[in-house]
Amino acid sequence: MIKKIAIDNFMAHASTELELGPGVTILTGPNNTGKSAIVEALRCVATNPVPKHYIRHGAKEARVTVELEDGTKVVWIRKKRSSGYELWHPGAEEPEEYWKFGRRPPADVLKVLKLDLVELESGDPIDVHVGNQREPIFLLNQPASNAAAFFAASTESAHLLAMQNLLKRQTQDAKRQEREHEERISRIESEMDTLTSLPDIGLQVESARELEGTAKNLQAEIPVLKSLLSGQLELSKSLEVKTSSTAILNATIEPPKLNLIEELNGLIHRLESVNRKQAMATKISTELAPLAAVPDVFDTSSLAGLCSQISSADNSLRKAEVRRTVLTELAKLPTPDNTSQLSDLIDQMIALRYRQSRFDRWDVALQNVAEPPVITSEQGMVRLLADIRGLASRQGEAQTALIDLEKQLQSVKDDLAGCIDKLGCCPTCGADINTEAFIDRGCQHDA
Which pLDDT does position 161 carry in this prediction? Predict the structure, then answer.
């Protein structure tokens, strides 16, 4: 059973792998998504069809890999001019490759796949494993004779007939090959009769080969002989040189005996060192003679400080010059106008707006107050007067409390005015503020 199908550069598939589970596998999807290409890939592995446009555009080859349950892999490779198979057995490091095997797949591949076509005596072979899309089952679109032959193929008589026909074909092929071999043997015998003089030529060829071998051996020994001759010439030259040197040395007298001269060599070296130092001192004295005497050295700390100040001033001057050059290109600053009156006017307008809103609230509150009742009796008036007196006393108390609150408010205003005078402006936005506007706005300030 097939376990996995891998398709590379085959028709519309760049690289596709399908893991087939147990049972039936169904491929579904929209049109032109490559379902039929997968079926065609299986047919290519099983039958190795004639070349078509199987290779994906831009690729050099198409590959279809079928992995079986036992781990065996069969790879069908379609190149532009040929096709081949790779058979991977479980645990093998290298595959068995099949090329130039004809149109029918190799027998080893067919044996592993078990997707052979059913051969019929009365018609073309039938594919019972793979079918095309929108075609009926394999027998329904075949002639009746093919269907009968297919069902008859399951009986022993059909097998015997097929084997008998196969034996007849093999016998006829063997007889035909025998006749061809006999004809070829007769042609070869007639051609051999024309070559009766070949033994003498063969003997001459053998002698020529022996001479050629001897010549090759001699030619191989020539470099060795050349090296020996060159070595002999060098030895002769060396012998002549040594002979002449021996004759010259025989004519010379013995050299005198040498005494120890180590102390003399030490004195000579010291003398040469003293002479070099004397010459150097003389040269230095000659060069220093025209020079004036060295002046006295004074304290130069003040001069160094002055130089540092001059350097700092020079740097500041350069920076100022650069700044002046930049500032000359800028426009002059506009003269600011005095906006204190405008600021006061705006503060007054804001204060009047808050007072107007306060008066509007009072007006709304007074509109909801009911009108005073009409007096109809004295008792009511007495009670009203008593209420008025009570209200007057309460008003006096409230007035006293109000005066106290106004005093407290004035104290708070004075403290607030002192704080505002100390600040001078708003610490958040930098605008001018005053006590009245700040209190009228509810202790807030609009930037």
Answer: 59
Report which secondary-structure segment, H or E, holds 194.
Answer: none
pLDDT in tens, 398-417: 888 888 888 888 888 788 77
pLDDT at 142: 67
The Cβ-side half-sphere exposure at 2, using a 13 Å CA radius, reads: 21
Whether the per-residue pLDDT at 158 is higher than 90: the answer is no
Q: CA–CA separation, 101 vs 86, rounded Å?
A: 13
Rounded to whole angstroms, how far apart are CA atoms 106 and 115? 12
> Nearest CA to 126 among 146, 112, 154, 144?
146
DSSP string over 358-396: HHHHHHHHHHTSPPPPPP--HHHHHHHHHHHHHHHHHHH
Pair 56, 13: CB distance under 8 Å: yes
Distance CA 416, CA 434 (A): 9
The residue extents of the domains of the chain are 2-116, 206-233, 345-358+376-440
What span, in angstroms and rounded, lies between the C-alpha atoms of 32 and 418? 89
The answer to whether the Cα torsion of 432, 434, 438, 441 is positive or negative is negative
Backbone dihedral angles phi then psi of residue 145, each to the nearest 5 degrees = -65, -40
Q: CA 229 to CA 224: how far, in whole Å?
A: 9
H-state helical runs in 424-442: 435-440
SS3 assignment for 134-158: CCCCCCCCCCHHHHHHHHHCCCHHH
Quick one: pLDDT at residue 73?
Answer: 94
Instruction: Record the pTM.
Output: 0.36
Contact 74, 45 (CB under 8 A): yes
User: For position 67, what pLDDT does the model report?
Assistant: 94
Angle at 99 between CA 93 and CA 101, to 5 degrees: 130
DSSP state of 126: B
Query: Above 70 in pLDDT, residue 196?
Result: no
Lowest mean pLDDT among 161-175, 279-293, 317-331, 384-398: 161-175
Read off the tokens for 260: 């120890």
pLDDT in tens, 51-86: 888 899 989 999 999 999 899 999 999 998 899 999
Q: In this structure, are residues 62 and 41 in contact, taking their beta carbons and an 8 Å threshold? A: no
For domain 2-116, the question of CATH label 3.40.640.10 is answered with no
The predicted pLDDT at position 5 comes to 94
Cα–Cα distance, 255 to 253 (Å, whole number): 6
How far apart, in whole angstroms, are the C-alpha atoms of residue 301 and residue 378?
114
- Residue 422 — very low, low, confident or very high, per pLDDT cuts 50/70/90? confident
Amino acid at 274: V
